[in-house]
């Protein structure tokens, strides 16, 4: 986390580009799903740092997370993406105007509505919705 917060802008952009390209890959094999999950676990660990969370939520990563939430076929990936979104919302210190938070809330509530009988899934999605709503209300 210290390395990330001390990165120069050019290195930060390269780092973001690598993350986004890994998340955005459309490969369907098990290795790709495992590497996505591992990347999401990593994002969960770094998202608890305020400076990094603020930089990540304001970057091109947030729309890609929303896209992954919509397009992923694996519920493990969807649950972990929701966790990353919730952690980013919880730990960010400021919310930029161009961050598509309302789109994330809308998608999360649609997923909850479509899968309202799946209590395990709701346990993954509801905290992210709550953190996003709290972030919106506190801005």
Automatic annotation (TrEMBL):
The keyword Transferase appears for this protein: yes
Coiled coil keyword on record: no
The protein's name: ULK4 kinase
Organism encoding this protein: Glaucidium brasilianum (Ferruginous pygmy-owl)
One MF term in the entry's GO annotations: kinase activity
Record gene name: Ulk4_0
Listed InterPro entries: ARM-like (IPR011989), ARM-type_fold (IPR016024), ULK4 (IPR045906)
Tree of life domain: Eukaryota
Gene3D superfamilies: Leucine-rich Repeat Variant
Record SUPFAM superfamilies: ARM repeat (SSF48371)
Protein keywords: Kinase, Transferase
């Amino acid at each position: 986390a210290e390395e990330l917060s001390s990165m120069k802008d050019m290195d930060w952009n390269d780092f973001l580009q690598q993350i986004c390209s890994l998340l955005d890959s459309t490969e369907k094999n098990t290795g790709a799903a495992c590497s996505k999950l591992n990347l999401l676990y990593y994002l969960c660990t770094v998202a608890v740092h305020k400076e990094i969370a603020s930089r990540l939520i304001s970057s091109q990563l947030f729309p890609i997370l929303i896209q992954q939430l919509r397009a992923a076929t694996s519920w493990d990936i969807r649950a972990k993406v929701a966790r990353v979104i919730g952690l980013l919302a919880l730990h960010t210190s400021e919310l930029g105007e161009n961050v598509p938070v309302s789109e994330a809330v809308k998608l999360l509530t649609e997923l909850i509505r479509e899968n309202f009988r799946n209590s395990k899934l709701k346990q993954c999605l509801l905290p992210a919705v709550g953190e996003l709503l709290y972030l919106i209300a506190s801005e």
